[in-house]
Amino acid sequence: MTVKTTFPKGFLWGGATAANQCEGAYDVDGKGLTIADVSPGGKERLGLLMSGEFPLEIDRDNYTYPNHKGIDFYNRYKEDIAMFAEMGFKTFRMSISWARIFPNGDDAEPNEAGLRHYENVIDELLKYGIEPTITMSHYETPLNLVKEYGGWKNRELIALFERYAKVILERFHTKVKYWMTFNEINTGVFGSFFSTAMREAVPQDNFQALHNQFVASSLATKMAHELNPNIMMGCMSIYATMYTMDSNPLTAIKREEENRLLNYYCNDLQVRGEYPSYALKYFKKNGIEIEIAEGELALIKEHTVDYLSFSYYMSSTVSTEVGEEARGNFFGGTKNPFLKASEWGWEIDPVGLRIALCDLYGRYGVPLYISENGLGASDNVEKDGSINDDYRIDYLKLHIEEMAKAINIDGVDLMAYTPWGCIDLVSASTGEMSKRYGFIYVDLDDEGHGTMKRSKKKSFNWYKEVITNNGL
């Protein structure tokens, strides 16, 4: 059957980055340190982050810090945005670094230099007709809030985030229509230094931290809608389509339990606005008691988000039997014999994206925004300077085809697609430059050597054609 592959009029094609992975200039113009600034580069990075044993200070004797330089987007944003415009971007998902606005997170007054920088970036995007999509907190909590407050388990961070959100919303509410509060918030369910800024992953603290973020998100949503009713506020989570390895009913139950906590829990709170019954049972069973102040449940219920955004990189397979582990799959799980994997071991599953879209739209009924999707790969520069990344084109083409099926066959309301790392940047999981996602190559290696010259990969012109033809 031939499937119509055009997308709705006004569909937001674009790309996505994060401040801590591309800006560099980590100590410039009054910016304070963030959790990303003390996260070391290299293959040991993820293990250190998960263990909670890495230092909370910069330790150049033992580690490198690639994000300190990034790809220098802080100074080169005009050049990069011009290339995004050449591709035809309709939107660009970026983040504001909290520590550029409040260097310590709890400062009395905002840093005007930081506000002015982001205003310049936003104005540059608007000059080309590119709608900014801004994430308020993308793995870059001010470091001081870890050291002095213990991260998001501390309820004082609610008011501090509210003040930060108020400043940027008041400054940019007439220029920015699309916002997201917390990046991949659901990684905090199982403990994530990046998302909750806590070194120890204790279930009691994890769920308290998430509750505090739900409250902070609702406060930001309330402010945004009061400032400008046309603003669309979104939540953002990471989604992994989950399969069972066999038809054993016990495997199906295990899959259901894991699926609810990873894929539904945070979205249930931010889109539906209430604690689901399965979560309350889970809390009781595990002795989790969340501190909830008067009026917070009503706030969460009344001020839900306008759309649901999610990242999709891979699926996960659940088994009750001992099997070969899926290498590189950060959700764990068993290797799926029906799927191929990237060189970093991430299983590639385009059909799983269609399943994800159907699942989320069927459950929540709000517009969906694919805020991250892409293939991390090693790119080779040929002697003539060309970069023939057909593997990236194939990956994205297959995922876009499944998006079209979800829209045209399944009736899903999909509003945007912003592939991750539209320009090469520092990897969040490894701190490497060699794990590249972009349509634009940046001449920089894992040790920080290179000219930082930008050049177009083969996928650059391919994606330009996709946008020009609205997905056709």
From TrEMBL:
The active site is at residue 372. Signal peptide: none annotated. The keyword Ligase does not apply. GO terms for cellular component: cytosol. The keyword Hydrolase applies. Keywords: Glycosidase, Hydrolase. GO terms for molecular function: beta-glucosidase activity. One of its GO terms (biological process) is carbohydrate catabolic process. PROSITE patterns: GLYCOSYL_HYDROL_F1_1 (PS00572), GLYCOSYL_HYDROL_F1_2 (PS00653). InterPro entries: GH, GH_1_N_CS, Glyco_hydro_1, Glyco_hydro_1_AS. Belongs to the glycosyl hydrolase 1 family. This is Glycoside hydrolase family 1 protein. It comes from Vagococcus intermedius.
